[in-house]
Design brief:
Number of strands: 17
Number of helices: 17
Structural class: alpha+beta
Oligomer: single chain
Strand content: 15-25%
Amino acid sequence: MAPAATAKNFRWSSQGDASTLDPHGQNESFTNGMNGLVYEYLVARGKDYSIGPALATSWKNTSPTTWVFTLRKGVRFHDGSPLTVEDVIFSFERAKFASGTFKLYANQTGVARKVDEHTIEFTTPIPNPVMLETVNSIYIMSKKWCEKNNVVKPQDFANKEETFAVRNAMGTGPYKLVTFEPGVKTLHVKNKDWWGVRDKFYEGNVETVEYRPITNPVTRMAAVKSGEVDFVLDPPVQDVPRMREDSALKVWEGGEIRVIMLGFDQERDELLYSDVKGKNPFKDVRVRKALYQALDVNAIKTQVMRGLSVPTGLALMDPKGAGVPAAMEKRLPYDPAAAKKLLAEAGYPNGFSFTMHCPNDRYVNDEKICVAAAGMWARIGVNAKIETMSKTLYFPKILKRDASAFMSGWGGGSSDAMFILKPCLHSRNTMGAGDANYGNFKNDEVDRLIDAAEGEMDAAKRQDMINRAVQIVQDEVLVIPLHRQVIPWVSRKGVTVVHRPNNILWLPWVKVP
């Protein structure tokens, strides 16, 4: 391994901040990425996005429902204490109490048992064909640290619970937390005792990391242009062509494993935020189709996303990666006249009104997309009032199902369809399924197909079940898929990063001149 360049300070920014430092508190990609500086998984994704060793050096599937992982030796937490099998078991059990979708993944890994000081056995309730990706969802914490600081259970994020783990962190990862000032600044310093330094996983030269959220896009871009920051995760899409021509900057681009969708409350008999009383128009598939066909996604792509989106008709992060036939990748046609006809058939010839809640600092041009959708719906007589807010307020709100209509994005991890089918499109249960089904819909056949596919080890049979479930979601318009994001990053010239489809910046690979 070539010696790293002189250690440097790295300053970076984006529009939002980490929602919590509790690694089992909120499953949101940016928050997960920030927590990934401190905490680690048993396995990790490489530069090519394939899964390889991390805190576990090897694993084997010894029976259809049994997996055995070997822990890396010599790993220590930031407080100097050694990583133990007990810490791993504790972390997976802790995540089972999470209020978000971590509970689902922890339950899918089954029951963990200590074999010896460096070996853990997981027994799953049913065969898990994507076990490694599931394990790649649960960060490992120190059992003693959690007990000492009274955070044995995860933060109740939906109810905005404050705990020691929300603003403090202590893991085994490549960087140690120095300070966390939400909305202002977060500081990390390199963990010189990280096992990845010893085992040649650290290839960069970043010694200290300063993150500063800057909500105003003009201010954010002025900061990278002036050299005040070295890197911006989310430059305004309208500025990308100009940045490509700027010799002082470098634009890094690639598609993201994420789908952006609009969803609706399909459970309540009367909506919370609507002028329709005594019934819920979103329970009628004709209304959902009308709203779908009133949306011109190509206009959203060209005018709002400035070309940096891939319109889709599927509620999947990566249809090709999910193995779904290309023929299924089609949308209902944009047709305002057909939409008006559907509304009239459903009993709303003059339309109706409702409020749609959206984040304004999470997805690319999230607020602008919602405003554009409202304008398109207005043309068919539907009045959507748009209320936007920071993701720190938005996610607790929709986790509590306190919305009639909302924007949702899902991805940043595996391309496998199960990682959106089970958390987002299955009905809710006590084991974590449907935790991100914010519209609270329930389709019995979709549930049956997802449950069957979840434990099916025959690849062809599993794919058939996934395709059939996806088709029903599409036909019933359980959500309205819009597009997959194409993600540009921008840095000062000379800064090198690795752009991966999870849209997470991995600091141990960053080099600053």
